[in-house]
Write a structure and sequence with these properties.
Organism: Pontibacter rugosus
Oligomer: single chain
InterPro entries: DSBA-like_thioredoxin_dom, Thioredoxin-like_sf
Largest sheet: 5 strands, mixed
CATH architecture: 3-Layer(aba) Sandwich
Structural class: alpha/beta
Shape: globular
Helix content: 40-55%
CATH topology: Glutaredoxin
Pfam family, one: DSBA
CATH superfamily: Glutaredoxin
Strand order of the largest sheet: 2-1-6-7-8
Strand content: 15-25%
Distance between the termini: 43 Å
Radius of gyration: 17 Å
CATH class: Alpha Beta
Protein name: DsbA family oxidoreductase
């Protein structure tokens, strides 16, 4: 008997720690249900702050400017909460080494390109790891090129890729799609183009949603309460 197909669009940003955690929780749910369902995964771009300059910004200044000076006194507690949640998903967050917040548009272009070679998930996870564990610059195009090649994108395809405009309009269109769908924070998971799961939900939540997938459900029906997420107007 053929498996029921479930399509999942993951809307996320490379700068978002809850996106990393949420994607890993989703992966755990998929591993537990792959005997019942056939999954098709794609990543959709969402820039939490598209105005970040190409050279990036100091992380502490970014938080102060975005959320007010009082946020600095809360950062240790926020980082610890994220580190604890990440450890449960085998994620190592090295927040002490993260000194910059990077512009992620080129990273999203790379993820878009990875989709044409069927390696989006590998590339996205490599970018998350490179930023949150290795504290690398996610707008370093040489590094992005290395990550792309190491994870299945042909080297010749990446020659001059970031110097050109390929993928730029496609990423912008996908970002507009997310905003038009009413998505204001990430991670967000659109399942079978009908269900919207918001935030880094536990694996059990995804498993429940998989079992409830129904063709007649209205578009973007929200089937869960809000999980942890990063939003344009709020902190992580």
């Amino acid at each position: 008997m053929s498996k029921q197909k479930i399509k999942i669009d993951i809307v996320s940003d490379i700068n978002c720690p809850w996106c990393y955690i949420g994607e890993q929780r989703l992966h755990k749910a998929i591993a537990a249900a792959e005997d019942k369902y056939e999954f098709e995964i794609s990543f959709k771009p969402f820039e939490l702050n598209s105005s970040i300059p190409q050279e990036g910004v100091d992380r502490l200044e970014y938080f102060k400017n975005s959320y007010g000076p009082s946020i600095i006194n809360q950062l240790d507690a926020i980082n610890q909460r994220l580190s604890d949640a990440g450890a449960e998903e085998n994620i190592l967050f090295n927040f002490d080494n993260l000194t910059r917040v990077n512009n992620t548009f080129n990273g999203h272009r790379l993820i878009w390109l990875a989709g044409t070679y069927g390696v989006q998930e590998k590339v996205a996870n490599a970018l998350f790891y490179s930023y949150f564990t290795d504290a690398k610059n996610m707008n370093d195009t040489a590094l992005l090129t290395e990550i792309g090649i190491a994870n299945g994108i042909p080297a010749e395809k990446l020659e001059g890729f970031f110097e050109g405009n390929e993928g730029a309009s496609e990423v912008r269109e996908l970002e507009q799609w997310a905003h038009a769908a009413g998505i204001t924070g990430v991670p967000a998971f659109v399942i079978n183009e009908k269900y919207l799961v918001s935030g880094a939900q536990p694996a059990e939540t995804f498993l429940n949603v998989f079992s409830e997938v129904a063709p007649q459900a209205p578009k973007f029906e929200e089937v869960t309460s809000q999980g942890n997420s990063c939003g344009i107007e709020g902190d992580c």
